[in-house]
Amino acid sequence: MAQQARGRARIFFTDSAAKQIEAITDEAEIHALDRALTALSVAPDLGSPIPDSHPELREYAVDDVRVIY
User: Fold this and answer.
1) What was the pLDDT predicted at 29?
2) How is 30-64 classified by DSSP, letter by letter?
3) What is the mean pLDDT of the chain?
4) The whole model's pTM is what?
5) Domain chopping of the chain, boundaries
6) Are 30 and 65 contacting, i.e. CB atoms less than 8 angstroms apart?
7) Dist CA 3 CA 41 (whole Å)
8) Distance, CA of 17 to CA of 14 (rounded, Å)
9) Phi and psi, residue 68, nearest 5°
10) pLDDT digits over 20-51, tens only?
C-alpha cells in the first residue's frame, strides 16, 4: 500500500504577530517571510527548541526572518 504524503501544517498568527506582518511593506521582507513560513509548513520540526519554554516553543531563523512558534 502506498504511503500517503503528509499535508502541510496550518499556520495561525497571534494578534501581535498579525500586526507585525501588516506593517511589512518591503517586497523582499515579504518574500523572505513567505519562504520561512512555507518551509515551516512543510517541516515544522526545522526550528530549534527554545530551552526552558513551557509549553515548548521553537525558533526558526533564515534570511533575516525569525519565527517563534
Assistant:
1) 95
2) HHHHHHHHHHHHH-GGGSEEPTT-SS--EEEEETT
3) 90
4) 0.78
5) 26-68
6) no
7) 20
8) 5
9) -105, 125
10) 999 999 999 999 999 999 999 999 999 999 99
